[in-house]
Amino acid sequence: MRETCIESRPRALQGGPPVGNARRWRPGGRPQGRDRGRFLPWTNGAAMRESDSSEMEAPETLPGVGEAICNCRACPIGALDNRAVMGEGPRDAPLMIVGEQPGDVEDRAGRPFVGPAGRLLDQRLAKAGIERERAYLTNAVKHFKFARRGKRRLHKSPTTGEIDTCRWWLERERAIVAPRLVLALGVSAARGVLGKTVRISRSRGEGITLGDGAEAWVTAHPSYLLRLSGGKKAEQERLFDADLAAVKDRLEELTR
Ligand code: SF4
């Protein structure tokens, strides 16, 4: 069984407060002003002098990103009783699929897209003829944000500030995997990929060229489909299937 992030955390940090000034620091940035010489976002809380920071460069490999996000406290979500969930899939996958954040099931399993929404995604990908095993699946936000209700942990949507802060890690994954097409599932994922907020209904159905030449496509998150019923569910499932079919066709063109 692989070691989980939460097991690798110093005990004092498990469920504890954010390390350092989470609002001021951004992944990849340097502490400014009175924070100079304190912590960097991907450290596990060990004090670090500014002179040490040259040894702590941005990770260049997926395992390196996975290790770094375990210790990231750049936004308050990382201080909850959770673990970072790294993306998974081939290092050179032509397709990257991005969700919002790990859910309760994903947090417990330490893997992305293994809960109810992930199972629905698997079904729809198979229907569209897209092999999940050939895609790299990840999330815009790497830690599970929730509110406790008794023993239950209820999903809470990340804020735009939290998505923007975590975007640095998604960009690292994109730089390493270099997918030709990035499929964003839902508004939060679209913000993580595009760096701005878009409406799914206006943005779906066509590619958006990203700065590195890859194409971003936007569709609904499968968890949205799970919440619907009746005619609206059927209509949204039809749109979702059409989006996946278009993504498959475009991916074939881009990788021909
Ligand atoms: S959600 Fe992202 S930015 Fe926030 S602590 Fe986790 S890895 Fe860091």
UniProtKB/TrEMBL annotation:
Xref: Pfam families: UDG
Comp. bias regions, Basic and acidic residues: 1-10
InterPro entries on file: UDG_Type-4/5, Ura-DNA_glyco_family4, Uracil-DNA_glycosylase-like, Uracil-DNA_glycosylase-like_sf
CDD domains xref list: UDG-F4_TTUDGA_SPO1dp_like
Domain Uracil-DNA glycosylase-like: start-end pairs: 86-245
Keyword list, A-Z: 4Fe-4S, DNA damage, DNA repair, Hydrolase, Iron, Iron-sulfur, Metal-binding
Region (Disordered): 1-60
Superkingdom, taxonomy of origin: Bacteria
Keyword Hydrolase among record annotations: yes
Alphabetical list of SMART domains matching this protein: UDG (SM00986), UreE_C (SM00987)
Record's keyword annotation contains Glycoprotein: no
PANTHER family reported in the protein's UniProt record: TYPE-4 URACIL-DNA GLYCOSYLASE, TYPE-5 URACIL-DNA GLYCOSYLASE
Family that this chain belongs to: Belongs to the uracil-DNA glycosylase (UDG) superfamily. Type 4 (UDGa) family.
UniProt-listed NCBIfam families: UDG_fam_dom
The name this protein goes by in its record: Type-4 uracil-DNA glycosylase
Biological source species: Pelagerythrobacter marinus
